[in-house]
Amino acid sequence: IFESYFRPRHYCVVESPVVRNEAGEVVFDKNGQAKLIHADLDIRLAQPDQAPFPLYPGEVLRQPVTPLKVVPANSALRLKAVLDFDDETAKEQRKAGDEWLFEGPATYIPRKEVSVEEQIRATVIG
What domain range includes position 75? Predict the structure, then answer.
C-alpha cells in the first residue's frame, strides 16, 4: 500500500493478518515465513507518524483503503455485534447479535467485531 493512497482518516481491512509480538514486530517461523492468523481480520488505520506497510505473503486486502465514516448530526449508524467483545467506549460487554446506535455528529472507527447495518436519519416532527 503506497503512502499517497493511505491518507489520514482512512482505513483498510486485511484478512489473515500476520502475528505480532508484544513489541508489535512481525513473528516469523523457522523458515522465515511470516506467521498468519488465518480467517481473522485486522483493521488498519492511517496514523500520522506511520510509514506505509507491506502486505505479507498470505495477507489479503479484503477492503481497499476507505475514508472513515462521518455520521452527521441527527443521524446514527445501527451497529450489530458479530463477535463478543468489550466495548471500551460504552464501558460494557457486547455479545454477538447485540444491536445499538452510534449517534452523530461523530466519526465512526470500525471494528472487526461489528457490522454496520444501516444509517438512520432522525425525523423531526413539529
Answer: 69-121
Contact (Cβ atoms closer than 8 angstroms) between residue 56 and residue 63: no
What Rg value do the Cα atoms of the chain yield, rounded?
A: 17
Q: Are residues 62 and 9 in the same domain?
A: yes
Cβ(48)–Cβ(55) under 8 Å?
no
Question: What 3-state DSSP class applies to 77?
Answer: strand
**Count of domains observed in the chain:** 2
Q: Is the dihedral of CA 97, 39, 27, 61 positive or negative?
A: negative
Q: Which residues contact 40 (CB under 8 A, 6 or more apart)?
A: 15, 16, 17, 112
**Between vectors from CA 109 to CA 71 and to CA 76, what angle results, nearest 5°?**
30
**Tens of pLDDT, residue by residue, the chain (126 residues):** 444 457 889 999 999 999 999 998 999 999 999 999 999 999 999 877 777 778 999 999 999 999 999 999 999 999 999 999 999 988 999 999 999 999 999 999 999 999 999 999 999 887
